[in-house]
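Two proteins, back to back. First:
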Amino acid sequence: EMGELNDRFILRFTNEDTLSNSFIPKSELSVYFNMQSSELVIKNPNRLNIKQIKIYDALGKQILLDSNVINDELIFVPVSTPSEGVYIATILDSSSKIIHKKFIIKH
């Protein structure tokens, strides 16, 4: 059909948090990769109770799952045979909040 269809789409605004994560201030966690020890280092100054850490490569493939996290100000996660590239660390805390942090491995 040719012409204008003015009733085809509806734009609705709601206050629901359907697509959002619980907000965690950026300053609470930081991550970097230590090439000498082949470990992901997570700085956790407020000692969030972290339950799980997952690491994904740039293609979305999960390369690590650590559910035995020792919560401290510095958390060390060994990563075996890391390749150069961009990775995402997905960190789950005890209140089910998810934090995504990007880090780069460069030889």
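And the second protein:
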Amino acid sequence: KKMVKELKTSGELEDEGFYMHHCVAGYDSKVENEQCRIFHLETGMGHSTLELNENFDVVQHKGFSNNSPRTKNMILAGILVEYLKNQILSNSDIMELERIVNDYKI
């Protein structure tokens, strides 16, 4: 299963921090002020959390407990970044990305 979910609320960031054992919950004001975008990525090999800046550049990408993400998650992050940089999606369009990601055989 592959999944990309943008985390937009304090509750979603808290849940991510609890689940992934890292401090992403502290980014709620940056997300609210649109200084960054946070995504939960899931592949068959694992889960990771991705932070992008306003230009969709990767700020950080962490696996469980701040470990390095798995290779497939890094590939998925690259696909997401490339797509976002080329499409400039609205928040409602992010859900469509899951369908596009599933077309890739990673």
